[in-house]
Structure formats: structure tokens, C-alpha cells
Amino acid sequence: MGRAPKVQQKIIGLIGGMSWESSAAYYRIINETVRARLGGVRSARCLMWSFDFGEIEALQHAGRWDEATAALIGAARRLERGGADFVVICTNTMHRMADDVQAAIGLPLLHIADPTAERIRAAGHRRVGLLGTAFTMEQDFYKGRLAVRHGLDVLVPEAEDRAEVHRVIYEELVQGRVMPASRDAYRSVIARLVERGAEAVILGCTEIMLLVRPEDSPVPLFDTTALHAEAAVDRALAPG
Fold it and tell me: What family, per the record (predicted)?
């Protein structure tokens, strides 16, 4: 019998540093998944441009989205020049400018919402809760894609809960702080979404997976970090 054909991996271009805690999780999940699929000491071919998140966070909260968009486009172009075959933005919130980034480069951009929605639909869910930054929960760039492209009915927490979810992300998780009291708060937010009819909950900020576990929710959780990273491996290992 002949030897199995060697898999020629595509090069994954990662735009990270928003925050580096979740970018480290992307790097780990991508490499663990490649090793699990290819065996031995195999690992991913990837490039990463990592931001100083302090600079990006300041732009976000000042509403200076044009400058943030320009920064992401610059990062994507660096990855393109470096030889990446496609681009992954390692954060949910900064998908606010995903269409602008895609228009500015000659590479495909793997949108974080798409593999998440596909997995939710495959599991038979239609009405889902969404946790994330205030930008992700309140603006339409993310909810709208889930609804229009994938037919999902998206619920977000009430205003007070949204404020607490956002606070924990920026004051704790992106600083590497995982607090038991905040886990309890998120459990309560999830429970209220379920009371309103959520059949599943999207962890729509890439740091939330540091805090919330499956046992913290009475309904299935869909972790965008893991789903996006695994989808990047799918694309990297796909033939052609």
C-alpha cells in the first residue's frame, strides 16, 4: 500500500492581542487541533500580528472606530505580505470592521460568527442568548449577521446585565483576572436569558471562555474562541 498523501497546510494569519489572553488560547487550540488531526509532532503553520490592546481599547471606548479600522487593515496587510493564505481576527468585537478589512486585502477573512452559527444550527437551536462586550451585544454588526445570514433569533441581556458583562471583560478578563464572584454573576445572567427562551448561549467575547464553563449554564454554551480556531484549522487543512 502507498503512503497517505502529505497534507500541505495553508498558512493561518492571526490578528491578535485583543487581548493576548484569548490570542494565546487561539494559538493553543489551533496547534492542539492540528496535532490531533495530523499526529506526531505536527503543528500549525501560522503568522500572528499582536496589538498592544491598551491602544485598541482606548480607540474602542472613545468611539474612534475609523482609526481602529485602519489599524486592523494595516495588520491584515502585514499578514498578507508575510505569506498568510487567509486571515482570522482573534476577537468578536473587532469584527465590527470585518467587511472593511476584507475589502482591503486579497485574502479570505474567516468571520467568527459563521462557524459559531453553523454549529448552533447543526445542534438544532434557533433562539440563542449572546454575551460579549457592550459593542457586540448592542450594535448590529454581530447580531445582524447571525440573524440575516443564519436565521438565528438573538437575545441579549437587559441593560444592567449588559453593563456587568462588559465590566467584567474589561476590568478583569482582559487583565488575566478570573474572579469567582464574576462567574456567579455570569451564571445569573445566563439563567435570565434562559428564562426568556434562550435555547443556547453564545460566549461572544473571546475571553469569556476563561471564566464560564459548561457546568455554569443549564443550556449548551457555544464558545466562539474554540469554534473559530477549529474552523481555521478546517480551512488550513482543506485540499486545494
Answer: Belongs to the aspartate/glutamate racemases family.
Catalytic position from the list 33, 69, 91, 116: 91
Q: Is 1 helix (H, G, I), strand (E, B) or coil?
A: coil
Q: Which of 205, 206, 224, 225 is catalytic?
A: 205
Q: Which of 85, 118, 114, 83 is nearest to 98 (CA)?
A: 114
Measured between its terminal Cα atoms, the distance across the chain in Å is 24
Q: Which fold has domain 12-111+227-237?
A: Rossmann fold (3.40.50)
CATH number, span 113-224: 3.40.50.1860
Where are any strands of DSSP class E within 54-100? 86-89
Annotated active-site residue 46? The verdict is: no
Backbone dihedral angles phi then psi of residue 232, each to the nearest 5 degrees: -65, -40
Q: At what angle do helices 224-237 and 113-122 cross, to 10 degrees?
A: 100
| 91 flagged as catalytic | yes
pTM exceeds cut of 0.90: yes
**H-run or E-run covering 46:** strand 46-50
Give the pLDDT of the chain (240 residues) as one tens digit per residue. Answer: 444 456 789 999 999 999 999 999 999 999 999 999 999 999 999 999 999 999 999 999 999 999 999 999 999 999 999 999 999 999 999 999 999 999 999 999 999 999 999 999 999 999 999 999 999 999 999 999 999 999 999 999 999 999 999 999 999 999 999 999 999 999 999 999 999 999 999 999 989 999 999 999 999 999 999 999 999 999 999 997
109 DSSP 8-state letter: B
